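#struct-help
A.M.: can someone run this one for me? Single chain, 161 residues.
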Amino acid sequence: MSNVQSMLAIGAMLILSFISLSFNSAVLNTSTIDFQNKVSLTAISLADNMLEEIKSKSFDQATLQFPTNNLASLTPPSSLGPESGEVYPNFNDVDDYNGFIDTVAAPYFETYYITCKVEYVSGNSPDVVSSVQTFDKRVTVTVTSPYLKNNISIAEIFTLR
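D.P.: on it. Structure tokens below:
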């Protein structure tokens, strides 16, 4: 084999190596993106499921039997959370979920952490937290996981009006 043939063989091996490396990198990148999409969709689904569960509850402890027009009868903002003796999954009103934390294991061995926050908000400006009772509560469900690049948060306004 001459020097020219040896150089051509080495060049061909280099080109084949670069092509193989590029292909493997593309496959790995696609797999990573696919996994991140699955994790994100699972997190969104968990947050949505929690909000759907909360929707099935009464607005407030004071409205379990009958609706009320008396703001003072609603749970004070400092007392939002489960009443004495209430334990998940036996919550009966929206504000019982304030401070709720749950851990969920999913099919790909990833773990998700679900937290809920309930706040009274102004009816005209749902981004403004109220320090007194109102007819509107904002529930924010946040899902975190070591596999998520960003936390997933979904908020919904519950109203008594």
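A.M.: thanks! The CA atoms of residues 110 and 147 lie 7 Å apart.
D.P.: also worth noting: The radius of gyration is 26 Å.
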